[in-house]
């Protein structure tokens, strides 16, 4: 089926011009066998060869770097930006080549920039999340931060910003680690060239917005929600009572129980489950979400906060001392 | 998927067990109501490919009430597949042989004639009297309302209500009824 | 129903990398204009390059423009997007104004949308505001403790009032009227 995909460009030449509303796909009977034969020959020679973009004739690194900065609406120092895109492996390869020619131009790699960028990203995300989710405890925030700063997420962001073609590395295609490192180096370069506030807005607009539409509670796995809930409410002296408020199909495999948690005889939260105990745990999770202000019906996270917020971490509770 | 989302989905697609008392009800009218619950048409999450039907337990199927002359006139056809294997059974004969068959055939007829029908019919349990197995009884969590009014027998009305009911006139004490 | 048009990739209505939520980033990465300097079919493209290209480049500094003058080749525009799509478009015998409009289309789309079949025309991250339906949502809590089958839940409650009931209510109303007068 993937072969037929590739025949699409060939088909565009074959199909006569017909208005889009009445176009009918006409595939000649020789198309599929031809493509299958081509694929067989390609695989024999070791797979499809894709050339990196910078080996094309139409390539101007300077123009690409300039456009990169302008596309993101940021002013970069051109040397720093080039340094941010140069990977250590590339520098090593260049030095080896230059040894043979005895030609010496020092190329800087992006290690320091990447470290600076990484530190700044972590700090800023921590501060931003603490401001935007005031009632969420610190373990939860570190869970979200770990997800946002993980290699996969940053590599995805950097891929969609167009760094894949510009990166100078020894191997093609570039792997996730180098993409993530380049992104951190770009943030470092922006920090050095344009200042903290612009770098903060950059991180906010590209990294933190990845939380849009996602459920924040998924990034913090709570082992014992009932015990945690009871601990939190004990500190304020509130008693909570679980009660079974609905069941369906008790003797079947698809049994479903609904447990409600009552505070002062008023329903606080309810949860469903396959067994009564699992329903109680889910009800406790829902109650915790309500306490932390991160329920499904919460107001969407504000992605428009300007500048760098001051930390008010005293308000944030740390659940476990260990 | 987080635990809460899984639990939410489990609850949304949970299968409820309904009970329906067929006493003095027309099987064909009740079949229209029962089929809705069996197919899942009463749920906002209905989709024909969704398998969202509920279980319905019918009790007192021996006490169903066919209309007018139907007990004597309605005939159920069956062919064994072999030559000369056609039988026409009248409703009262069928009911005597198996009191659950009439309502079962009525529900089968009310449903859409697609390949889902046989599978959906598996979800229908019919019991001729009030006796239900204990496991089935424990599963039941909802009751479907009947369609026809079941009139109370005059001698089944409690005494106090009879005394309280307003009378226009009453016979004198020494009146003798003939 | 089924994916009968196997040649089109299918997708949902999404913005790559949450584009508008933070800042807006123009998804067009680079545009390559290949034309012939003398052939008549490239006239429109040549006019575009002479008149509108510099304005285009200065208005969109984030797009890299490459020019490839090749003899005896038909005019072609290849647009490359940030999500990796390459859109190849033949501009042979197209007029200047047509080319301007097509370039505008290429500039504002977010990838090769012509080759993507939309599975649905809407997308939402929050399909339910009040919470998804469960069988418990509109259930009477009295059913939890009721012993089923129960007359209260089984009898039809939508029947019109019977004559017996009407008479009884008429009588009660009458007695209420009578009593105050007696007092």
Automatic annotation (TrEMBL), chain A:
Domain of life: Eukaryota
Listed InterPro entries: Ribosomal_mL44_DSRM_metazoa (IPR044444), RM44_endonuclase (IPR055189), RNase_III_dom (IPR000999), RNase_III_sf (IPR036389)
GO BP terms in the entry: RNA processing
Keywords: Mitochondrion, Ribonucleoprotein, Ribosomal protein, Transit peptide
Entry keyword annotation includes Glycoprotein: no
RNase III domain location: 61-195
One protein family per Pfam: DSRM_MRPL44
Residue stretches spanning the membrane: none
Compartment(s) where it occurs, according to its Swiss-Prot or TrEMBL record: Mitochondrion
GO cellular component terms attached to this protein's record: mitochondrion; ribonucleoprotein complex; ribosome
GO MF term set: double-stranded RNA binding; ribonuclease III activity
Family per similarity comment: Belongs to the ribonuclease III family. Mitochondrion-specific ribosomal protein mL44 subfamily.
Protein name: Large ribosomal subunit protein mL44
TrEMBL record, chain B:
Alphabetical keyword list: Ribonucleoprotein, Ribosomal protein
A GO-annotated cellular component: mitochondrial large ribosomal subunit
GO annotation terms (biological process): negative regulation of translation; translation
Membrane-crossing residue ranges in chain numbering: none
Any one Pfam family match given in the protein's UniProt record, by short name: Ribosomal_L13
GO MF terms held by the record: mRNA binding; structural constituent of ribosome
SUPFAM superfamilies referenced in this protein's UniProt entry, alphabetically: Ribosomal protein L13
InterPro entries per UniProt: Ribosomal_uL13 (IPR005822), Ribosomal_uL13_bac-type (IPR005823), Ribosomal_uL13_sf (IPR036899)
Superkingdom assignment: Eukaryota
Family: Belongs to the universal ribosomal protein uL13 family.
PANTHER family, per the entry: LARGE RIBOSOMAL SUBUNIT PROTEIN UL13M, RIBOSOMAL PROTEIN L13
Name of the protein described by the UniProt record: 39S ribosomal protein L13, mitochondrial
Taxonomic placement: Eukaryota, Metazoa, Ecdysozoa, Arthropoda, Hexapoda
Automatic annotation (TrEMBL), chain C:
GO cellular component: mitochondrial large ribosomal subunit
Compartments, record wording: Mitochondrion
Source organism superkingdom: Eukaryota
GO biological process, one term: mitochondrial translation
Statement: the UniProt record of this protein carries the keyword tRNA-binding: no
Main location group: mitochondrion
A Pfam family of this chain: L51_S25_CI-B8
A GO MF term: structural constituent of ribosome
Domain Ribosomal protein/NADH dehydrogenase span(s) in chain numbering: 37-110
UniProt signal peptide: none
InterPro entries noted in UniProt: Ribosomal_mL43, Ribosomal_mL43/mS25/NADH_DH, Thioredoxin-like_sf
Keywords: Mitochondrion, Ribonucleoprotein, Ribosomal protein
Family (UniProt): Belongs to the mitochondrion-specific ribosomal protein mL43 family.
Protein name: Large ribosomal subunit protein mL43
Organism: Parnassius mnemosyne
């Amino acid at each position: 089926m993937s072969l037929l995909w590739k025949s699409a460009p060939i088909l565009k030449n074959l199909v006569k011009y017909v208005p889009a509303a009445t176009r009918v796909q006409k595939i000649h009977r020789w198309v599929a066998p031809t493509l299958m034969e081509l694929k067989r020959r390609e695989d024999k020679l070791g797979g499809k060869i894709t050339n990196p973009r910078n080996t094309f004739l139409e390539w101007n690194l300077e123009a690409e770097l300039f456009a990169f900065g302008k596309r993101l609406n940021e002013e970069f120092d051109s040397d720093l930006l080039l340094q941010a895109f140069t990977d250590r492996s590339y520098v090593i390869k260049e030095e080896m080549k230059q040894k043979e020619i005895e030609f010496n131009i020092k190329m800087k790699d992006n290690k320091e920039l990447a470290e600076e960028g990484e530190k700044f990203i972590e700090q800023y995300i921590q501060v931003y999340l603490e401001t935007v989710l005031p009632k969420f405890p610190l373990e939860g925030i570190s869970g979200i931060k770990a997800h946002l700063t993980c290699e996969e997420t940053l590599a995805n962001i950097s891929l969609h910003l167009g760094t894949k073609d510009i990166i100078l590395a020894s191997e093609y295609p570039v792997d996730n680690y180098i993409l993530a490192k380049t992104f951190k180096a770009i943030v470092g370069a922006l920090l050095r060239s344009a200042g903290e506030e612009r770098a903060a807005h950059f991180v906010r607009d590209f990294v933190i917005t990845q939380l849009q539409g996602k459920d924040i509670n998924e990034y913090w796995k709570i082992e014992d929600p009932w015990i945690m809930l009871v601990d939190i409410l004990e500190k304020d002296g509130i008693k909570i009572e679980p009660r079974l408020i609905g069941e369906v199909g008790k003797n079947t495999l698809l049994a479903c129980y609904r447990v409600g948690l009552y505070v002062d005889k008023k329903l606080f939260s309810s949860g469903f489950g396959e067994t009564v105990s699992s329903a109680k745990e889910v009800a406790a999770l829902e109650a915790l979400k309500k306490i932390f202000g991160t329920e499904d019906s919460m107001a969407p996270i504000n992605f428009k906060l300007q500048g760098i917020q001051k930390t008010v971490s005293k308000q944030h509770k740390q659940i476990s001392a260990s | 998927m987080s635990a809460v989302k899984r639990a939410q989905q489990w609850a949304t697609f949970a299968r409820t067990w309904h009970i329906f008392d067929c006493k003095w009800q027309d099987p064909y009218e009740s079949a229209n109501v029962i089929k809705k619950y069996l197919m899942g048409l009463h749920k906002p999450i209905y989709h024909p490919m969704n398998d969202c039907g509920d279980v319905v337990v019918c009790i007192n199927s021996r006490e169903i009430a066919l209309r007018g002359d139907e007990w004597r006139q309605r005939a159920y056809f069956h062919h064994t597949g072999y030559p000369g294997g056609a039988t026409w059974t009248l409703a009262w004969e069928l009911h005597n042989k198996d009191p659950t068959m009439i309502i079962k055939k009525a529900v089968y007829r009310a449903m859409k004639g697609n390949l889902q029908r046989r599978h959906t019919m598996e979800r229908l349990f019919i019991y001729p009297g009030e006796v239900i197995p204990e496991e089935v009884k424990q599963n039941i969590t909802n009751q479907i309302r009947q369609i026809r009014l079941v009139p109370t027998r005059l001698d089944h009305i409690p005494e106090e209500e009879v005394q309280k009911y307003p009378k226009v006139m009453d016979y004198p004490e020494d009146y003798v009824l003939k | 129903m089924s994916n009968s048009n196997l040649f089109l990739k299918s997708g949902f209505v999404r913005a790559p990398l949450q584009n508008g939520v933070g800042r807006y980033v123009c998804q067009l990465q680079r545009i390559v204009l290949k034309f012939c300097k003398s052939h008549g079919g490239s006239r429109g493209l040549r006019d575009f390059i002479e008149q509108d290209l510099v304005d285009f480049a200065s208005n969109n500094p984030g797009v890299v423009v490459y020019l490839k003058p090749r003899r005896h080749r038909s005019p072609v525009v290849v647009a490359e997007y940030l999500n990796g799509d390459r859109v190849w478009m033949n501009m042979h015998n197209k007029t200047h104004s047509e080319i301007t409009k097509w370039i505008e289309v290429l500039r504002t789309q977010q990838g090769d949308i012509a080759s993507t079949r939309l599975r649905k025309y809407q997308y939402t991250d929050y399909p339910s505001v009040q919470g998804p339906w469960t069988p418990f949502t509109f259930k009477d809590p009295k059913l939890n403790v009721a012993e089923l089958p129960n007359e209260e839940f089984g009898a039809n409650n939508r029947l019109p009032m019977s004559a017996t009931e009407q008479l009884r209510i008429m009588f009660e109303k009458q007695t209420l009227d009578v009593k105050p007068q007696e007092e």
